[in-house]
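dumping this here so i dont lose it again. seq + smiles for NAP
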Amino acid sequence: MSNDMTLVLGATGKTGRRVAARLRLNGTPVRAASRTSPVRFDWSDPGGWDAALDGVTAAYVVPPAVPGPVHEFVARAAASGVRRLVLLSGRGADTWGESTFGLDMRSAEDAVRGSELEWTVLRASNFDQNFDEDLFHAPLVAGALALPAGTVPEPFIDVEDVADAAAAVLGQPGRHAGRVYELTGPRGLTFAEAVELISRASGLPIAYKQVSPAEYAAALVEEGWDETGAHHVAEMFVLMERGKLAGTTDDVAAVLGRTPRTFEDYAVRAAAAGAWLP
Ligand SMILES: NC(=O)c1ccc[n+]([C@@H]2O[C@H](COP(=O)([O-])OP(=O)(O)OC[C@H]3O[C@@H](n4cnc5c(N)ncnc54)[C@H](OP(=O)(O)O)[C@@H]3O)[C@@H](O)[C@H]2O)c1
């Protein structure tokens, strides 16, 4: 446990709310912030940042959806007395090259890794919880998930493990300084295999359908996404198809001293909670 007042950004999101709960349970003082949290924090409104940072010595940072703001945030944090930052990022962010995917996360990494503060970056593979708390949920409930995911496996990680890792790093000052952890699940699964496991655990007839990146981007636009955002999400699948992000790592064990949770474990928990019921 740490006595640092810890600012948790993205506090209503998939990782932030789990990180905040773990820290509170450990007795760490937490300031949970986002646009809709009681402590308001908006990446597009730097005028409100100093109040959120007041008295804070460590922060869990979920990057904003656009490149840029984290540079100013890091400067403000340092000036306000923050000593440690833990940043969420994406698997293999240094291998994405010319892709337009993840410019937001790469900008946030540049800001955090270039700072004088003690920092740790948690680069996570695709989350299991994308299937019940995010983008893939509605298509699964409707009975079919259509993606340009192909046959390259993805080592999906359970967000509970990401949150365990973030809480562990935040609770162990000095131990993870300057480290970049590539957090993966215990094995790779294709999206078709992941959907099959969800279908089996839920007892619901859910299908996986292969589409092209262009078809996927067009479908997202039809759902109301703007062209740029839809293209960026489709680009993620083009990146994954290269295979560089498909392998597993031992970094969950390096941080937590145990193996990561399985996708089967996730699918059973979410199915039991009724996640995919129509
Ligand atoms: N999904 C994946 O598989 C995956 C894998 C690796 C990395 N990532 C990265 O993880 C990040 C998302 O993390 P997450 O999944 O924990 O969060 P999330 O579930 O996507 O939720 C986003 C959080 O950010 C807050 N937020 C949104 N816009 C904001 C703004 N303008 N100012 C301040 N806060 C804002 C939201 O709360 P309010 O609405 O209350 O503001 C919410 O708490 C992204 O950078 C993504 O690229 C995702």
